[in-house]
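Fig. S4 source data, part A: sequence.
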Amino acid sequence: MTVEARGLRKTYGQKAAVNDLSFTLEPGVVTGFLGPNGSGKSTTMRLMLGLDHGEGQTLWDGQELAAHKSVTRVVGAHLDARFFNPNRKARSHLRMLAAEAKVSNARVDEVIAMVGLETVADKRPKSFSLGMAQRLGLAGALLAQPKVLLLDEPANGLDPQSIHWLRDFLRVYAGNGNAVFVSSHLMSEMQLMADRLVVIAKGELIADEDAATFVGRSTRNDVLVRAANRDALHSALAAEGIESFSDGEDGLSVVGAETDRVGEIAFRNQVQLRELTVRTASLEEAFLELTSGGQEYATGQSQPPPQPPTTGGAAS
């Protein structure tokens, strides 16, 4: 099922929390939803589900969500880890949801086992840890085997093993032809999980592209070359119109050229190389760089941020 968000907008007074957002979720794809705190991610998901009033529309296989006969078979959403009656047993909570979705009790037991809640299924969730509450919320989203999953920070409170399980589970779920839309602040996990990224800042779209393309836009992607005569190599690269910056005692960070070309220039100029390595930015580095001007609630810094290297030559 393809999901199309078109022109989503939500304002609070004069402030736009979400401003003309449009993007598409495709079946078979895990789409990561990224943005600094206060960027409008949760509001966007609520607009998509019709839980908040705003402008724009979201089409689920070409129809408004309310036009589908069974909404729970279209989308399973988990937006709040504590969305349950704390005094109702976990199994009873899921059976209540199952009744609305016309799902059997056998399916309830199946998802309880799937998310690892068998030992606490007959306990009241008011005593649940955040991680256990997350599992219960995910179980509810999965009950009707929906074609789309919308998950807002589902890894919060999970231990490393559970996060690993969640990542693999969501990739398998998408691999079965479903669309998965998941927000997270865990960049290392998102880098392993997401095929595609929707990135917003201050309610506006920054990127809607595959993860590799987004990371590739970072200026932190370069070639590290260590040479016996770094200054000679720097001059040879500059003569070819290639920028390089000092990096360590004998290294250069080369921007805008691949290893083959750097190696060929070094060979022609008889510069002995000690290392020639491609360095790729992490998703976290690319995210911080490309959203640096869009953080709504920035923390104070006790030290000035690191400065970029000065252009114009290698250090002696």
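Fig. S4 source data, part B ends here. The mean pLDDT is 89.
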